[in-house]
C-alpha cells in the first residue's frame, strides 16, 4: 500500500488518531472533511406460568418504542430476561438459560439445541454473564419451550429462584475445589436471599488466582494474595478475609446489608456509596489475575471463540460437555469441529450486538459492518446498535455507536461516548478504514 494512503511512524490520520493499531488512511486520503416489538408480547415475571399476563400486541407498540429510543436515548432495562420472563426483540422472544455452575453436559446441549430449533429460529447467543439465550421464540412456542426446559432441569420450577440464580463461576473449576464447593452451597441456599434488583449477581472466583476480576458482579468471593479467600463488594478495591466454609454466610449477609442500607435505590453494589459494615470492610487485596483462556487447547479440551457470541443450535446436537464463559468463548471438554479455535481470527477481537432489525432499540446494522471492518482494525473493535453498549461495557480501541440511523466514531472509549466523528454512514467508515 502506498505511503500516501496509510499512516506510518506516528502520522496522524484525518481524524487526529496516531495510535499504532489504527490502520485508517492519512489525511490526504480521507473521504471525510475533518471537523471539530411488532406483534410480540411482553411477559411479566410471576411464580406461575398461568399468571403471566401478555400485553396487547401490534406493530404500533414497537414503532413507539423505537421512536422513544431515538428521541430520548435507549431504554435501559432494570432486569435481565430468563426463561420465566422472556424479553421481546425484533426477531421474536429471547429466552435465557442459566446453566448451573456454567456447565452443560453433552445430553443437555443436544436437548437445548433441539429445543432452540423447534421453538426458536435456531440461533443461540452467549451473554456476558456466561448464560445462553435462545432467540426468535414464537409467541405460541414460549410455553412448550419453558415446559421442555423445566423437564430437562435447566430451569427452576420456582420463578423467583430462577430469577435469583444470578451467579458467575470461574469456568475452569474442578469437582470439589473451592469455586465448585462455594457455588454449590450458594445454589442450595438461594431461598435465603433477599429480593435484589434484577441485574445483581454473585461472582465465585476462587481458583488459584482470580479469573473474573473485570466481569459483571456485585458480591464476590476471590482468591487473596496470601492464598486465602476474601469477600469483596464490587466497587471496593479490597476485601475482607473469610473463613473456609463460611463464604456463603458472608455473601448472604452482604446481600442482606445491601437491601437494608437502601442499596436498591442505587441498583448495583458499585453505585451504592453507603459505608460498608465493619465486618465487610478490609484491606486484603485479591491475587494478581490469571490470563484468561484463548481459543485453542485448554487443560480440559478445546476452547472455541464464538464471533459475536452466537452459535447455530445445530452445532450443539453432537457437542461434548461445555463450560460457558463471559468472553463469548466455549470451553469444550473435547473437540467440536466447525467452530473457531484460532486465537488470531480477527472476529474474536470484535464485539457487536445483534443490532437492527433484531433489536428494536438499535437504529443501525452492526454485525455485517463489524465483519467487514475486523481485518482492518488491529485493536479491539466494538460496534453497538445504540448507546447502551450491550455487547461490552469495557472500553475498546475503536467504538462505533448507532444513533438515528448513522454511526458515531470514538477511540479508546465505550459505546455512547462523545464521538470524534459523529453522523457517519457505513460507506464512510469502510472507506476510512480501507475496507472497500
Which terms would index this structure?
oxidoreductase activity, five-stranded antiparallel beta sheet, Sulfite Reductase Hemoprotein, domain 1, alpha+beta, Nitrite/Sulfite reductase ferredoxin-like domain-containing protein, single chain, globular, 20 strands, 8 helices
Secondary structure elements and their pairing?
Blueprint: H1 59-72, E1 87-89, E2 92-97, E3 103-104, H2 106-119, E4 123-126, E5 132-137, H3 142-152, H4 159-164, E6 167-169, H5 178-188, E7 202-205, E8 219-223, E9 229-233, E10 240-242, H6 247-260, E11 296-298, E12 301-305, E13 310-312, E14 322-324, E15 329-332, E16 350-352, H7 367-373, E17 381-384, E18 396-403, E19 406-413, E20 421-424, H8 426-432
Description:
The chain is an alpha+beta fold. It has three domains: 37-157 and 296-341, Sulfite Reductase Hemoprotein, domain 2, CATH 3.90.480; 173-280, no CATH class; 346-432, Sulfite Reductase Hemoprotein, domain 1, CATH 3.30.413.10. The chain has eight helices and 20 strands. The chain has helices spanning 59-72, 106-119, 142-152, 159-164, 178-188, 247-260, 367-373, 426-432; strands at 87-89, 92-97, 103-104, 123-126, 132-137, 167-169, 202-205, 219-223, 229-233, 240-242, 296-298, 301-305, 310-312, 322-324, 329-332, 350-352, 381-384, 396-403, 406-413, 421-424. Strands 1-2-5-4-13 form a five-stranded antiparallel beta sheet, with helices on one face. Strands 3-14-15-12-11 form a five-stranded antiparallel beta sheet. A hairpin with a 5-residue loop joins β8 (219-223) and β9. α2 (106-119) runs antiparallel to α3. The protein is globular, with a radius of gyration of 22 Å. Residues 1-12 and 18-76 have low confidence and may be disordered.
Amino acid at each position: 500500500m502506498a505511503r500516501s494512503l496509510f499512516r506510518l511512524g506516528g502520522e496522524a490520520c484525518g481524524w487526529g488518531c496516531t495510535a499504532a493499531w489504527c490502520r485508517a488512511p492519512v489525511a490526504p486520503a480521507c473521504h471525510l472533511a475533518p471537523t471539530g416489538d411488532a406483534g410480540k408480547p411482553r411477559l411479566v415475571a410471576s411464580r406461575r406460568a398461568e399468571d403471566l399476563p401478555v400485553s396487547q400486541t401490534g406493530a404500533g407498540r414497537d414503532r413507539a418504542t423505537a421512536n422513544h429510543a431515538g428521541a430520548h436515548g435507549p431504554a435501559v432495562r432494570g432486569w435481565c430476561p430468563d426463561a420465566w420472563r422472556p424479553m421481546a426483540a425484533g426477531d421474536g422472544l429471547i429466552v435465557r438459560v442459566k446453566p448451573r455452575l456454567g456447565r452443560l453436559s453433552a445430553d443437555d446441549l443436544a436437548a437445548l439445541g433441539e429445543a432452540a430449533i423447534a421453538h426458536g429460529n435456531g440461533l443461540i447467543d452467549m451473554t456476558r454473564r456466561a448464560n445462553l439465550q435462545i432467540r426468535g421464540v414464537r409467541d405460541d412456542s414460549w410455553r412448550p419451550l419453558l415446559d421442555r426446559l423445566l423437564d430437562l432441569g435447566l430451569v427452576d420450577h420456582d420463578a423467583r429462584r430462577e430469577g435469583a440464580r444470578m451467579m458467575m463461576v470461574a469456568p475452569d473449576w474442578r469437582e470439589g475445589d473451592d469455586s465448585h464447593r462455594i457455588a454449590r452451597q450458594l445454589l442450595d441456599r438461594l431461598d435465603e436471599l433477599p429480593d435484589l434488583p434484577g441485574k445483581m449477581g454473585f461472582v465465585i472466583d476462587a481458583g488459584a488466582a482470580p479469573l473474573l476480576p473485570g466481569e459483571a458482579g456485585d458480591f464476590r468471593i476471590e482468591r487473596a494474595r496470601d492464598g486465602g479467600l476474601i469477600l469483596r463488594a464490587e466497587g471496593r478495591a479490597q476485601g475482607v478475609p473469610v473463613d473456609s466454609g463460611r463464604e456463603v454466610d458472608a455473601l448472604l449477609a452482604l446481600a442482606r446489608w445491601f437491601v437494608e442500607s437502601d442499596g436498591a435505590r442505587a441498583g448495583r453494589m458499585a453505585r451504592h456509596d453507603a459505608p460498608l459494615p465493619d465486618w465487610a470492610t478490609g484491606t486484603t487485596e485479591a491475587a494478581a489475575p490469571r490470563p484468561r483462556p484463548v481459543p485453542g487447547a485448554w487443560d480440559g479440551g478445546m476452547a472455541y471463540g464464538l464471533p459475536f457470541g452466537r452459535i447455530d443450535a445445530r452445532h450443539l446436537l453432537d457437542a461434548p460437555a461445555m463450560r460457558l464463559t463471559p468472553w463469548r468463548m466455549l470451553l469444550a471438554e473435547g473437540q467440536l469441529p466447525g467452530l473457531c479455535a484460532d486465537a488470531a481470527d480477527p472476529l474474536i477481537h470484535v464485539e457487536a450486538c445483534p443490532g437492527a432489525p433484531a433489536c428494536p432499540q438499535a437504529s443501525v446494522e452492526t454485525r455485517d459492518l463489524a465483519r467487514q471492518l475486523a481485518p482492518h482494525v488491529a485493536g479491539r473493535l466494538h460496534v453497538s446498535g445504540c448507546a447502551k453498549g450491550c455487547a461490552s461495557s469495557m472500553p475498546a480501541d475503536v467504538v462505533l455507536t448507532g444513533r438515528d440511523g448513522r454511526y458515531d466514531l470514538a477511540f479508546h472509549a465505550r459505546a455512547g461516548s462523545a464521538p470524534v466523528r459523529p453522523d457517519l454512514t457505513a460507506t464512510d467508515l469502510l472507506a476510512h478504514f480501507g475496507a472497500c
